[in-house]
Amino acid sequence: EVQLQASGGGLVQPGGSLRLSCAASGFTFGNYDMNWFRQAPGKGPEWVSAINGGGGSTYYSDSVKGRFTISRDNAKKTVYLQMNSLKPDDTAVYYCNVLDSWGEGTLVTVSS
């Protein structure tokens, strides 16, 4: 059974940083691309970033490009999202995803 558990969210001031983690189990982690999505209050899900199985290719939405960095540690079966220069518009529940599996999200609130 695929399990994904995101963590690392919290309250941060505009301009601040957070690092999200997503621990995975139940599948051969290094064989799969991983995604981060987010859902802001009252809005639909938004794809944020992706990384291929080997970690050598990364992709970002225009809204986070240059501010967020995705990475992974295949030995630890964990994918990360380093978020810098956070804005109030980044406030959302962040989820990690593989294929059609979703974990519990972690709430990020950017507010002064």
Q: Strand count, sense and closure of the main sheet? A: 7 strands, mixed
- Using only C-alpha atoms, the radius of gyration works out to 13 Å
Number of strands: 11
Strand and helix order: EEEEEEEEEEE
Share of residues in helices? under 10%
Average per-residue pLDDT, rounded, comes to 97
Strand share of the residues? Answer: over 45%
**Secondary-structure class:** mainly beta
User: Could you list the spans in which at least 5 consecutive residues all have pLDDT below 50?
Assistant: none
Please count the helical segments: 0
Outline, from the CA principal axes?
Answer: globular
Terminal CA distance: 40 Å
Summarize the structure.
It contains no helices and eleven strands.
Describe the structure.
The protein has 112 residues and is mainly β. The protein has strands at 3-7, 10-12, 18-25, 34-39, 45-51, 58-60, 68-73, 78-83, 92-98, 101-102, 106-110. The strands form 2 sheets. Strands 2, 4, 5, 6, 9, 10 and 11 form a 7-stranded mixed sheet that branches. Strands 1-3-8-7 form a 4-stranded antiparallel sheet, with no helix packed on it. The model has no long low-confidence stretch (mean pLDDT 97).
Helices, strands, pairings?
Layout: E1 3-7, E2 10-12, E3 18-25, E4 34-39, E5 45-51, E6 58-60, E7 68-73, E8 78-83, E9 92-98, E10 101-102, E11 106-110
Parallel strand pairs: 2-11
Antiparallel strand pairs: 1-3, 3-8, 4-5, 4-9, 5-6, 7-8, 9-10, 9-11
